[in-house]
Amino acid sequence: MYGIIRVAKIKSKGDMRGEQIHTNRERISRTNPDINYEKTPENKNYIFCEDFGKRFDERIKELQNAGTQKKVRSDAVLMMSGICTASHNFFDNKKKTEQYFDDVVDFLKDKYGKKNLVSATVHYDERTPHLHFYIIPEKEGRLCAKKMFGKQDLINLQDEFFTKVSSKYGLERGEKNSNKKHLSTQDFKKINNEANNLEKKLEKTEKIIEEKKENLEKLKSKERQRRRRYLLEMFTYKSAAKKKSEKKIQQQKLEIEENEKKIQVSKNEILQLSEKTGNLVQEEKETYRKIRRMKEEINLLKQEFSNTKADNKELLSFIEKEKPIFIKEKNKLKEEINSLNNEYKKLDIKKQEIQELSQQKNNLIEVCKELVKFENDFKEKNLDKINIKKLDTYLKENTEFKFGLNEIIEKIVKPYFAQKEKDNRPRMRMR
Question: In the CATH scheme, what is the code of domain 3-180?
Answer without folding.
Answer: 3.30.930.30
